[in-house]
Amino acid sequence: MEKLWSSILMFLLLIIRRNGLCQNFAESFHSHPQQEQHQQQHHYGDIGTDEPQFITKGHLYRAVVGDTIVLPCKVKNLGSYVLLWRRGAAVLTAQNLMVTRDARFKIIDGYNLQISNVKITDAGDYVCQIGDVEPRDQVHTLEILVPPSVRSVPDHGIISARQGGTATLECKASGNPTPHIYWFRKTAKHSSMPLGEGPVLILEQVGRQHSGTYQCKAENGVREAAYADVNLKVLSPPELSTERQWIHASESCEIEIVCTLQSDMNTEVSWYQNSFMLEPTDRRTMYSRGNKYILSIVNFRTTDFGNYSCVADNSLGRTKKYIEVSGRPGPTEFLSSQYSSHLDRYNLTFKIESLPDLDEIKLLYRKLMINETYQRPGNWNELVLYPSVSRYDSRHFVMSYIITKLEHNSVYEVMVQAKNRYGWNEVSDIHQFHTRSYGYVNENMDFIINSISMTSSGTVVYRRKFIFIIICCQFLSAFLLSVIT
């Protein structure tokens, strides 16, 4: 129907042009043939001199969806000719008359065609035509630019893959021009280097470290880039870690054993003591806080000593972590410097964790024979000490012992082992120290050790009598050394 009305309109416009807007149609129909011929010759003779000409030229125009675009059409010597705007077979305008019902189209500044709020469907060729027996055309091509949009596949953006397998991440983008897609690992700050390019990102041999959020970025130069997130979950056997592998305890105390779980699947955590599964009791509580699983024991008894394990199970496997709970002294922590300020002695200071008092301390030391080509240890010297050690806090003891009769400018190794009523602890790691050489002066009195204990109010109390005795010994030793040498 629209094509029919367009044809009728074209026919009427040709009749109007040939006969004039005010000319009597009947008179024109009955005019003399010679007179009509003369008029036609006079009319076509004008074409050669005052023929309509396009001032503008056909052009490719680009507009972003939602924008307003103006397609120009300016003609010189239009005279009584009719100017049309067509799109395909459909006539949009005739002179200043709007033929299309689409209110987005408008004639402005003469015969320029304005299109507001352009749509994707507006793309195509637009013809500015001078109506005549042989119409003359000027063609503008309109291309609609569409900002990028992107979505994850699947739409919920969650991908799962087994540990050691392959993960395929996908995004689909649309827009005009066709957008380019880049992949990034989504973190607090965007990385400048993409992980990949294209709609699909393939990750092989995935592990737990690959879990997280990935982001695909789509851009085509039209306005801002678009983003979509893909969350990757790597399914794997549970991973457990412990804060401590050894816990010191004593009767009537309270302890907590903590295991930290890492798992992307439903996982059950259970507790064992010496291979026997534990159940909650009035003294034993099991609970979780976030990804931390805690076994709490109050009013500790000797039967509670032993080897504990937390066990995590899911559909992909089982993981165990072991924690020993013992009343024996804890590992030895050396506090003294590696360098002695004396030629023939060294002040060894160390800290040991123990709730009960220490009954006995075993000290072993030896000299290392070192030159440019080899290193040979000497025999161990063993000392058994029954000292009155000082408490550093409620759980630790601090002790100092001066090892004498050493050789100057030498390297020694020392180990310590301690005993309380529950037994001996493990022998400590080796601690190395160096005696002073001749000509070296160290003004620091490193053998002066403050035995420190913490009062209930948290203030530091120095054992002044002990310090005074040590200082007196220092000056006496220095005096005797000067006499001997």
Detailed description of the structure:
There is one protein chain. This protein is mainly beta. Helix content is 13%, strand content 45%. It is built from 4 helices and 39 strands. Strands 2, 5, 6, 7, 10, 11, 13 and 16 form an 8-stranded mixed β-sheet that branches. Strands 30, 31, 32, 35, 36 and 37 form a 6-stranded antiparallel β-sheet that branches. A 5-stranded mixed β-sheet has the order 12-18-17-14-15, with no helix packed on it. The radius of gyration is 48 Å and the shape is elongated. The termini are far apart. The model is unreliable at 16-48 and 442-468 (pLDDT under 50).
What's the shape? elongated
Poorly predicted runs: 16-48, 442-468
Biggest pleated sheet: 8 strands, mixed
| Structural class by secondary-structure content | mainly beta
Q: What's the number of helices?
A: 4
Beta-strand segment tally: 39
Strand content: over 45%
How many whole angstroms does the radius of gyration measure? 48 Å
N- and C-termini, Cα separation: 128 Å
**Mean pLDDT, all residues:** 82
- The level of helicity is 10-25%
Task: Summarize this entry quickly.
The protein has 485 residues and is mainly beta. Helices cover 13% and strands 45% of the residues. The model is unreliable at 16-48 and 442-468 (pLDDT under 50).
What secondary-structure arrangement, pairings included, does this model have?
Blueprint: H1 2-19, H2 25-29, H3 33-50, E1 53-54, E2 60-64, E3 69-71, E4 75-76, E5 82-87, E6 90-94, E7 97-98, E8 105-108, E9 112-115, E10 124-131, E11 136-153, E12 158-162, E13 167-176, E14 180-185, E15 196-197, E16 200-203, E17 212-219, E18 226-235, E19 239-242, E20 246-248, E21 255-262, E22 268-273, E23 276-277, E24 284-289, E25 292-297, E26 306-314, E27 317-326, E28 332-334, E29 346-353, E30 360-370, E31 375-377, E32 381-385, E33 390-391, E34 396-403, E35 411-420, E36 423-424, E37 431-434, E38 452-454, E39 460-462, H4 464-484
Parallel strand pairs: 2-11, 12-18, 20-27
Antiparallel strand pairs: 1-4, 3-9, 5-6, 5-10, 6-7, 8-9, 10-11, 11-13, 13-16, 14-15, 14-17, 17-18, 19-21, 21-25, 22-23, 22-26, 24-25, 26-27, 28-29, 29-34, 30-31, 30-32, 30-35, 33-34, 35-36, 35-37, 38-39
